[in-house]
Amino acid sequence: MADSSEESRPKRMRRDTSYKAKAFEKFKQLKSGNRNKYEVEELDSVYEVVDEKDYVKKVLSRQDEDWIVDDDGSGYIEDGRDIFDDDLDSESIAHAQASGKEKGKKRKKKAVSENAGKGNLQQMISNMPTKKKEEVKIDDDAMLSEILEEMDDASSGPLKAKLNKTIEDECSIKSRKQAAMDYMKSFSVPAKKPPSITIRTPKKEAKKENVPISCKKEVPDIKTEIVSPKGLATQKDNTSVIKKPQINGDLSSQPEVIKKEEESTIEDSEVPANDTEKIKIEDDFTQECFDDDLDMSLIEEFESQDVKNKIEEPEETMVDEWHAEFSTEWENQETEIDSSMLDKTDIPLVVNADGKKVFRFFWWDAYEDAEKHKGVIFLFGKTYSEKVKNYVSCCVAVRNINRQIFFLPRTHVLGDDGKPTDEPVTFKKLYEEVNDTIMKPLKISSFRARYVHKKYAFDPEVPAESDYMEVRYPPTDPKIDINSLRRAPRTFFRIFGGDSPFLELLLLERRIRGPCWLDISDPVPVNAPVSWCALEVSCSRPGELAVFTGEGGRQPPPPPPLVVLTMHMRTAINPKTLANEILMVSCLAHDRYALDGKTPHPPFKQHFCVFTNQSQHTLPLDIHEALNKYRATKVQKMGSEKALLNYLVAQMSKIDADLIVGHDLHGRQAALLADRLTRLDVRNFGKLGRLRTTEKKKLDRRLFAGRLVCDIKITAKELIKSKSYDLEALCQVVLKMKENQYMELEPGDIPKMYRTSDGIIKLISATMQDASYILRIMYELNAIPLALQITNIAGCVMSRTLLGGRSERNEFLLLHAFAEKDYIVPAKQQYKKNDDGAKQSARKKPTYSGGLVLEPKVGFYDKLVLLMDFNSLYPSIIQEYNICFTTLPASSGREDAPEMTLPSRDSAPGVLPTEIRKLVESRREVKKLMNTPDIPNEQRMQYNIRQMALKLTANSMYGCLGFSNSRFYARPLAALVTHKGREILMHTKDLVEKMGYDVVYGDTDSIMINTNLLEYDQVMKIGVRIKQEVNRLYRQVELDVDGVFKYLLLLKKKKYAAVTLSKGPDGKLYENREYKGLDIVRRDWSQVASESGKFVLEHILSDQSSDERGAAVQQYLCKLRSDLEEGRVPLPLLVITKQLTKDVKAYVDAQQQPHVRVALRMGEGRFRAGDTVPYVVCKDGTSNPPTQRTYHIEELKKRPDELKIDPQYYLAQQVHPVVSRICEPVEGVDAYLIAECLGVEAPRARGPSASASNREVGENAIRPEVRYRNVDRFRFRCVGCKAELEADEAGAWLGSQCSGDSCRYRPVDYLGHVQNQLTLAIRGYIERYYQCELTCEDPACSNASTRRLPLRFVRRHPVCFVCKQGVLYRTYNEGQLYLQISYFRYLMDPTRFTKTVLEYDVQEGYFTLMETVDEILNDSGYSVIDLTELFRGFEVTSKIFENNKQKVLPTMDEYNEEDEDDDL
């Protein structure tokens, strides 16, 4: 190798020494700073010559415009002087240049400007304009270049390596995901695919001269819209079929996209090669580029490909065209309201039906600050202004909302001894005591009182109907609490309404049910505004506020359109302060989002991205040039994080959004934004909301006060089911994106992308793309129209509805219902206390029995299984049995549910059943309207949203009864509902079985019936017959057919996999897969385990035979094992993720939690509560358990020589548990076979009970070879040769000669030694038993062995303290100990030698050893059953019959019930 390297080195010829000296001299001059002289050309004039009149006009126009930008929060004061353009942002420059084009010379427009901090010399120099000049190329001088090459030889290697490493880091995410995806594609699944997702279309072979045109729904790159056939070959799994576009020189019409789920075909446009230059691509970035399924992970792949037949169009030209079109669209569609035209003292008024002028507005949100503004509610909404011909934001302050309390009088006045007297309580006596004992001590100067008749149904100590004294007094006075009185009141004993919030009082009194049009009769303009709204009005008292319901029999107008702002942030951890810093924010805005119309198109009209760099790093030198070429969106580069936040606040104040959309906005992003605003002391942070405030305490809770906030993560949790609710998972579930198509950036990747300008551009594109995904998800879920409908139904505040609080929505619905019927509502309980005064957890399970889950008949069913369920079971039960606070006696609140007496059939309907009936009937009417054939699609969509809102509200009504923190919490009512649900399910099961069908499983409100049929229509007829038999028994409860399973793999309770069948409109059957509760949908498994489970399920739930399934599974597992052992499995498939439920330092058992260990090792501030920690299990040269050999991916990269992936762990504790659980009921595949294919050791793989579960059919467990199959053999040492011998149970080992060459001893010759060794062996097993080592029943749990006994037990078994799910059992139990000792006795029993004649001494030796074993075995109580102790409870003595007292002995069923109670 050395010779070859020397031969490849170029040989140099000798040169003259003087020539070298001249070259070195020249190089020395260059290094010393002496450059070649250049001829400076004549500079062009950079000034625009204007006269004095034009100059004054320009200065005045600038003063009128709002063009000044704050500098790091300090701000400028306009005094009429000119400033430099570098201090402006790009929008101001563009506006100024646009006005200057008409009068002066055309200037070159800058695409971006930098708001850098003052005093930064490096950024000032980088911003200086430079003139192109002739450069001296060193390559032209051959001798000088050769010298420089020699000097750079030593440093070129590390430089290239560093450059390559940077590129590798940037491509790491894409390459890792692509490698994992390619690896999983290598396993082909020959299973039959469901017909619903298989669409076959003829494929055409791509020709070189043809150019495929990408469509708007599948744009792989934001820079290139035309890709080559070679580039498209890498996307053979795209989910679209692109039809041939009409190419007539203009491509304004985009190609049609037909969505498919599996296969796709790309038809090439037949365009001659010589005509490709005539094609023009017109892309609307607003409508297209952010509305498509961009795969940013493919950017670098497409850029790196060398495409021979690519259309020769300059990239800069295409980007310029995009930017020009985008900028034009921005200017045309941006509808900024000129606030200078609005006079806040001139309130726009309308004339109502009574001819009176009122201020009419639509309120969206309400805000209450009971500490600073007592008795004041701020209503934020929109009103129409004739001056600007548009809707503008407004704030209405409803003041003087009085407190309202009710005093429940006694029947008789209490005496001094606390006992009632004969004197009745009158209104005068009650009034005097309230005034003397409460009002005067609290210094309440004025109050009003009256007698009213009210009802109460929530406490057995309070009468159902009674007279109350209602008292109202000013809100500035203190609250009244009966517990604060010095002595017990004599004329009253209860006070209601003391803690009622002012917002609740306003909504109930004025009967405001959600966002609607409101009229203010006497509006008062505000001189000192308290909000940032365009208009502000004050309402002096609540009586001036009224709901506008329409005029002339017409409905009120629809809600005004919303201004929507979508924001997404990128953060990075500062290595010095370990604090998260905001580096980039992208925003999308739309100013007319109409909730009663279709989804807006384009989805947004305005967009910008602002970014900065970390303080300890500098931006690349070519960042300005890269940003000038980037035309996709408006980019603003700021000099610091504080400047970025100031810019963001200014832009959000300018847009004045009514709705802010984001992902995890109420979680991390709002908290982080509030923290950075506070730490950096940003003064104008209040403009993020609509309420003027300078208070930074608890800023994250009121950061966007006055604006609606939609967190799609919270909304998606309520509307859809998903394995995870991060942005990647939501894109796959909602937007139907393919797996690995979304590029998720890890926290450590963002600083790496700041190293190059190309990385920053990609980060900007990815951030804007994520913002567009968030907006599209909100549109797809119809989150805002649905929230509006739910809020109007419940009568609460829309901002609270968007937070996903179902209990609060149900509370307001019942509050309105009870208030309308003159009921006093129960008080709001913040929390409940236990006996010791501690707060009760909101997550605590109910103290009553819930729904019934039938014991599943585990197995694999290849005949059709019928799934039936009850429609809205719990709401139907409430209606069926008229369960309500008003129908059941309040005194039964302390009784158990089964003992409660149901109301009679002829009793009046209660409030709760009435409200549910209204919701159900309204939904039926809406569904009828929705099925009307001639209605527009927009109206049909509104009906669908309405019926969905009604369904969600009705189904959640039961929740307020069982939620302990709800003010309508009623445990007896909730227990009664669940009791009747269990009763109905059991009765339905019995009825189905009487009809001759087998019920294999049931859960709360559904049952699965095995029909043993293969015809779909016959199964549906059976379902109809069962439905009719069950529904005739009830009036409101209704059973219906929910689906048919073609295959069902039933594993255990709430865990099954199935293939569902459904008949389409065309009469064809379509298949779909359904997984519930399986390990493959859990996040704490590695992807290789999940994919293994999916692969096995694909084969099990297919039309293959059992032999084909078993062969495919074995082949897959063997290949996976070899790939893991040889390191061919990509790293992303081995990553395990687990979420931190609390702060890292709050974990007590941090060393037992693998993800906590990794988080602690990665440093403080890297991971916080709620973050998911990724890690892998490696071999680190130690013998530590797997939980202590977990490492982050970055650690694995930094220490490749020390850390290696542990394949045995992934095979034994990741793949094997998942696959073995799935295959347990499948014939032909068992745990032994899986362990053998994976090379897993049998003890860990099969567990202690595997020997019994894996016996072959027909085996006789009494036979010794079967019974003692898995015990340890007896081994002893020879006294002669010291060799270890094993007792052979098949032969007379005690009399056999030693196997040693020179040893002639027999074991019987040293019988005493054998006896001692036998005793020591037995004692060793006994000692092992008394060590009480416990292990988790879950093979995947990291708790391999422990002697720690948890305090929590379930059915007399301790619960594992690591996984919190499985139970702990002994690794060596009493049964195994007894079996081992019994084996030794069998081994020493001479009577088993029936065909062999033993010598006398050998026979006596066997008896001696057997007696030794019997002495120990007789001390064991495992084999002894004392019937006296067992049946002592049934002993009858003479004392029972004394005094002629007869007692009934308990039955066995009663004893079993007592045992079950003890278990609970």
From TrEMBL:
GO MF term (any one): zinc ion binding
Any one GO cellular component localisation term in the record: alpha DNA polymerase:primase complex
NCBIfam families named among the record's database cross-references: pol2 (TIGR00592)
Domain DNA-directed DNA polymerase family B multifunctional: 798-1226
SMART domains referenced in this protein's UniProt entry, alphabetically: POLBc
Keywords: DNA replication, DNA-binding, DNA-directed DNA polymerase, Metal-binding, Nucleotidyltransferase, Nucleus, Transferase, Zinc, Zinc-finger
Reactions performed catalytically: DNA(n) + a 2'-deoxyribonucleoside 5'-triphosphate = DNA(n+1) + diphosphate
Protein name per the record: DNA polymerase
